[in-house]
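REVIEWER CHECKLIST
Item 1: Sequence provided? yes
Item 2: Single chain? yes
Item 3: Sequence as submitted:
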Amino acid sequence: MTDPNQLDDDQLLRHARTVILDEIGEEGQTKLLAARVLVIGAGGLGSPLLLYLAAMGIGTIGIADDDRVDMTNLQRQIVHATDSVGQAKTESAAAAIRRLNPHVTVERHDARVTAESAEALVARYDLVADGSDNPSTRYVMTDACHRAKVPLISAAVVRFEGQITTHRSFEPGDNPCYRCIHPKELPDDLLPRCEEAGILGPAAGVMGTLMAVEVAKELLDLGESLSGRLLLYDALTPELRPIRVHRRPGCVLCGDMPAG
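Item 4: Structure as written out by the authors:
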């Protein structure tokens, strides 16, 4: 029987370039193999994120998406292919993950995540990465992750710009949630969508890749967390610029958390 705390020969070879990093090593790679990560959305952000999670050897990846692959998705949603058009995005993404790394277990969630279903779903995972394209889902995910005490990495992208942050609002200190940054709930039709404003495909790739980096950092406790910072990306400048964001004392979700 394979020891779950030991890398087998195939895993050692597959992840050799990660294992030789002093900050990670075999112990860190074993942590990744044992990790359970939920990805919300298999679209422009979720596509590169899912591929990198599979490539880095995340043991169990959950995919939550109720949409189907459309031809207009393919210029940015690189986890899907032309022959995937019409398939459920979770099905298409799961097939791509299996081709890349057959050791990964994929859990498909083919329904839209709601306030009623989110908390039980989130509680099954160690970390959530939200690449959804609407504010209502982001509010749902920040609420569920806060209550389940699960770290949440959240990103958004449109046109040539993106942003990303990490929410650890269940911890004391200056760790804001999404509601701290956007206290007044934004309607879904207020923000421009890709089909209306357009999007440069590689800009989504940049943000999805940054999400994968932050997933690895959170799972392995590497470097500095993005909690309390919003990282802004402008492809036309080009510029990556972090700004401080703070816990809001009156926040309906996390405002009663101790300051530190």
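Item 5: Key structural point noted by reviewer: The chain has a mean pLDDT of 94.
Item 6: Recommendation: ____
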